């Protein structure tokens, strides 16, 4: 099972919006609505930000949103804040009844 | 409050065995899958496998099948990840996480495993 494809890095200025893509196949991202996104700050455990493509857990800012088109899912962060600087990982359920993560994207807030 | 508390950091030699733990509290431990995730130094997250403590149904990533064993003791609400013969390449942070659906909502704090001669 190959990792999902994410850009290695993205950046944006405070207040701007950025989008992180996550590309898989019809056997994972494209085949199921079980795409989730995680934020990880250095030295910390991952934190769930989006589940089932576009749902936000309680307590997660509405500046975070998710979507999917075909085999590509996306995480959009609007109104960038300094505290958003972190690594972001997508994940998807697969046709093998397993899960797969993306390679991760480092978000830098300029 | 849902919590997953993992066992402490380990330093082992190549060839040694190891079992790390993840204790759940604040919810019905037997009703949710528990997954294990590896993060090698400076690298991304890798899904290793998952167990349903209610009946010990277990699934493994092909990359980790045969390399590790996932188990659970529902009487003490604890899941385990074990190795029979560690390698230097097993050096990593290992996380457990609860799976309520198609995602992982609560994560343990991580267990750092260092394998060095």
Question: Which helices and strands appear, and what pairs or packs with what?
Answer:
The complex is a heterodimer of chains A (110) and B (117).
Chain A: E1 9-12, E2 18-23, E3 35-40, E4 47-50, E5 64-69, E6 72-77, E7 86-93, E8 99-101, E9 105-109
Chain B: E1 3-6, E2 10-12, E3 18-25, E4 33-39, E5 45-52, E6 57-60, E7 69-73, E8 78-83, E9 92-99, E10 106-107, E11 111-115
Parallel strand pairs in B: 2-11
Antiparallel strand pairs in B: 1-3, 3-8, 4-5, 4-9, 5-6, 7-8, 9-10, 9-11
Domain Ig-like (chain A): 1-90
Organism (chain A): Homo sapiens (Human)
Protein name (chain A): IG c867_light_IGLV2-14_IGLJ3
What do you see in this structure?
Chain A: InterPro entries: Ig-like_dom, Ig-like_dom_sf, Ig-like_fold, Ig_sub, Ig_V-set, IgV_Light_Chain. The complex is a heterodimer of chains A (110) and B (117). In chain A, 0% of the residues lie in helices and 44% in strands. By secondary structure, chain A is an all-beta fold. Chain B is 0% helix and 51% strand. Chain B has strands at 3-6, 10-12, 18-25, 33-39, 45-52, 57-60, 69-73, 78-83, 92-99, 106-107, 111-115. In chain B, the strands form two sheets. In chain B, strands 2, 4, 5, 6, 9, 10 and 11 form a seven-stranded mixed β-sheet that branches. Chain B is globular. The interface between A and B is medium-sized, with 29 and 24 residues.
What labels describe this entry?
heterodimer; A: 110 residues; mainly beta; 6-stranded mixed beta sheet; 3-stranded antiparallel beta sheet; 0% helix; B: 117 residues; 7-stranded mixed beta sheet; 4-stranded antiparallel beta sheet; globular
Rg of chain A, Cα atoms, Å: 13 Å
Structural class assignment of chain B: mainly beta
Helix content of chain B: under 10%
The percent range for strand residues of chain B is over 45%
Summarize the helix and strand pattern of chain B as letters.
EEEEEEEEEEE
Residue stretches of chain A low in confidence (pLDDT < 50, at least 5 long) are: none
What oligomerization state is this entry in? heterodimer
Mean pLDDT of chain B: 97
Largest sheet of chain A: 6 strands, mixed
The fraction of residues assigned to DSSP E strands of chain A is 35-45%
Gap between N and C termini of chain B = 40 Å
Largest interface: A-B, 29 and 24 residues
Could you state the order of secondary-structure elements of chain A as H and E?
A: EEEEEEEEE
CATH architecture label name of chain A: Sandwich
How many domains of chain A? Answer: 1
What gross morphology of chain A would you assign? globular
